[in-house]
Amino acid sequence: MSTAVVVGGGIGGMAAAVALRARGWSVQVYEQASEIAEVGSGIGLWPNALRALDALGVGTAVRDSAIEEQSAGIRDARGRWLSRTDAATMRRRFGAPVMIHRAALLDILRAEVPDSVVRTGVAVESVDCDGTVTHAADTATADLIVGADGIRSVVRRAVCGEVSARYAGYTVWRAVVEIDRPLTEYGETWGRGARFGMVPLTDGRIYCFAVYNAPEHAPGTLAEVRARFAGWHDPIPALLAAADTNTVLHNDVYDLPALPTFTAGRVALLGDAAHAMTPNLGQGACQALEDAVVLARLANDPDGLARYDRERRPRTQMIARRSARIGAIGQLSARPLVALRDTALRLTPPSAPFRSLAPILDWTC
């Protein structure tokens, strides 16, 4: 039986473990944290990701724990719609995207893997292309090493050497909140150098995020975020007022430059370790799920890792470039450019976004 070590127990790593085990591999997952857990935020799963989850055998469970997105679009800071998403057309053309809590998705994937497969508290120190993994307590060898250890990946050094993440120029605050009235309109709001997003979760709570231009590592407080968005349209101030200082998440946004390869020897990268991208297309985790399915499908072939690289690298890097461009447009701050952007959004035909999304959402296993 072929053996694999998956480094990283997040969504991509657990998906890889599920996919490889289904193909007959003996798998061990090494996770440096003391427990497998996800942060308290929501995640959008586009139709391409749902197809990957179907291939993993968990699509139904995910849909049962998720909520279908019904309303989306982009507004300006005063609440005027710049563009609307035609949910019915989206559903007919691609299938409906869903929203789920990240922890719920990880729990579903984790439930597919026996406890004996996952080793927590294991910090991998180095990986060799011959399939050797070194950590503080021991070394291990395997036929395949999967680097699913995120944007600061240790495994990536064996494939590409040192690669520095790039700061996108903006920071994000994320929270899951509950307010005392129902909402019927969701989506994003674009202002000058700042954006705000809100999406529903199954339990009636709302996942929201606030994004604004800032120097890298700039300190900030939730009170400052509330003040920054205080003049924006309802219910944005109310959502921020409901955010809990103890659970809100604050992270600068980074991506990776385009890597020359995702594989070397017996090592393959997936997810953020391979193609960390800005979140502007909502495709980061979706692409990690695709990676896991494709890697498992090809890994048994003699040239499987080379084929994985040829199949996944162009696609994920194309999506990363698009996401970065959308972020740059969304974060414009000069008044004339913002006015031009908003006018262009109002004049864009409703069919244009669907044409743009087709190369991404039409993916099948």
Biggest β-sheet strands, sense, barrel? 7 strands, mixed
Average of per-residue pLDDT values = 94
Number of helices: 13
* Spatial separation of the terminal alpha carbons: 24 Å
Which fold name fills CATH's third level, the topology of the domain at 3-70 and 99-165 and 257-329?
FAD/NAD(P)-binding domain
Structural class: alpha/beta
Beta strand count: 19
The CATH architecture of the domain at 3-70 and 99-165 and 257-329 can be named as: 3-Layer(bba) Sandwich
**Rough outline:** globular
Provide the CATH top-level class of the domain at 3-70 and 99-165 and 257-329. Alpha Beta
Strand order of the largest sheet: 6-5-14-15-16-13-17
State the fourth-level CATH superfamily of the domain at 3-70 and 99-165 and 257-329: FAD/NAD(P)-binding domain
Notes on the protein architecture:
The longest helix has 27 residues, at 304-330. This protein has 365 residues and is α/β, with parallel strands linked by helices. The strands form four sheets. A seven-stranded mixed sheet has the order 6-5-14-15-16-13-17. It has a six-stranded mixed sheet with strand order 8-2-1-12-19-18. α2 packs parallel to α10 (284-298). It has helices at residues 11-22, 47-55, 59-64, 87-93, 102-110, 156-160, 222-228, 236-242, 272-275, 284-298, 304-330, 335-347, 352-361, and strands spanning 3-7, 26-31, 42-45, 67-68, 73-76, 81-84, 98-101, 118-120, 124-127, 132-135, 139-141, 144-147, 166-177, 187-190, 194-200, 206-213, 249-255, 263-264, 267-269. It has a domain at 3-70 and 99-165 and 257-329: FAD/NAD(P)-binding domain, CATH 3.50.50. It is 36% helix and 25% strand. The mean pLDDT is 94. It is globular, with a radius of gyration of 20 Å. The chain is built from 13 helices and 19 strands.
